[in-house]
Amino acid sequence: MKVIVDLCLVPMGVGVSVSKYVAACHEVLQTEGLEITLHAYGTNIEGEWEQVMGAVKKCHERVHDMGAPRITTTIKMGTRIDRNQSMADKVESVQARLDGEA
Amino acid sequence: MKVIVDLCLVPMGVGVSVSKYVAACHEVLQTEGLEITLHAYGTNIEGEWEQVMGAVKKCHERVHDMGAPRITTTIKMGTRIDRNQSMADKVESVQARLDGEA
Amino acid sequence: MKVIVDLCLVPMGVGVSVSKYVAACHEVLQTEGLEITLHAYGTNIEGEWEQVMGAVKKCHERVHDMGAPRITTTIKMGTRIDRNQSMADKVESVQARLDGEA
Amino acid sequence: MKVIVDLCLVPMGVGVSVSKYVAACHEVLQTEGLEITLHAYGTNIEGEWEQVMGAVKKCHERVHDMGAPRITTTIKMGTRIDRNQSMADKVESVQARLDGEA
User: Which of B25, B79, B83 is the best mutation test for A, with the most CBs of A within 10 A?
Assistant: First the structure.
């Protein structure tokens, strides 16, 4: 089952600056061979369920290894069985509406 | 790695009433032997990472099997390595603050 | 417009224990006269949109005043125009399904 | 108080395709003069709290007006009082880490 995920991992107990933890997760996700897109409040990920969720677990493990005692993560995850849809498709379908209405 | 999760699964393309899908997920989670608590905007789940996330995948599969062509799920997931903390502990620690300040 | 909200406010840069901040938000929400229910990964709130969202802003202000330099909050918010539905209704409609299937 | 928001609005009871509702929200947010960035699982928004949250309410009103009987929205919202930080700053601080480690 394919899944599109929006991942926002927040390390707690490590101060206000969390960019190094987010960058570490970025590397974990890339090492796992996943298609990812960073945005201002998370990272979009596309792939097979087990691969994506396995990578999210590795992100938690990596961030704990880096010294974060606690992590709270917010994930949105979408699956559909009516048709294939990529992350790019989702953005394009909205953009087509916007262009069509212009 | 133990995880506390807040799961909110939303079937799309099946009308406005989604209680039967939420109830089906409740049964899936219970069949998996997970500790769960239903609230007005989701379900709290406590357990080992693989078990919990495997159960979440089974929820998606069940809801698709019931006819929902598309699902969007929001999950919050917390892990910590400094100490053990159950769902009940989390509520109690806040309640103790509230009682202490009363 | 009535809204049902699930609020999860996470102060950053204040260490791993956040129960005193959650308790402070609980008090803010109660002072605002809102119907609330605490659970293990957030707080359910029911009320008019402006009142609820105004109270959420007051929670951010209070937690910053308590010393948190940064806050990240996850909110789920539901509105419907087909019928009235309370937080209790939502739980009961799922519970009725579970009982009916038992 | 400035806020950075990630908005993901999901109309329920209108079928599986929701791009026209997302496009309508995009227009509402632009009409409100907000800085926004669309991604594959939501829209990042930057602005003053009242302006942003007022615009989110207008999105709900617009989508209900378009015929959606029910809406569930997931929002992440970040505030900080230690320094100013834009959406672009957030992405750049992670990117700088990634480049530095390359």
Answer: B79
